[in-house]
Request: fold
Amino acid sequence: MAVSEKTIFAEELLRQHKNAVNNTIECFNNISLSMEDLVIQVNVITGEVHEMEDCKESALRAIMSISSVSQQSAAAVQEISVLSEEQYRGIEKMAEYVSELKVVSHNLSEAVKVFKTQ
Reply:
């Protein structure tokens, strides 16, 4: 091979090498941009995960509050039931007293008639 052919061949090799280096640099730049985008997306996802965690905690507090209110309501219903039973027994007792009072009143009325007829 002559010197001029070697020079042309060397220049072609250098051009190809330069193209390969440029392609490699472009690939690394693309990778770098992709990594930057990935970091941004990971940060967005992390923020959303924190927001979901906050929502979960809020929901748990609400459920606990509802549970507490339900327990208080159940206790109040139980107390009302007991008081209703006591009132019912009191009304039954009053009905007994009214029946007894009727009997006593009737007996008194009969006794008064005896004295009126004499």
About this structure: Residues 24 and 106 are 120 Å apart (CA to CA).
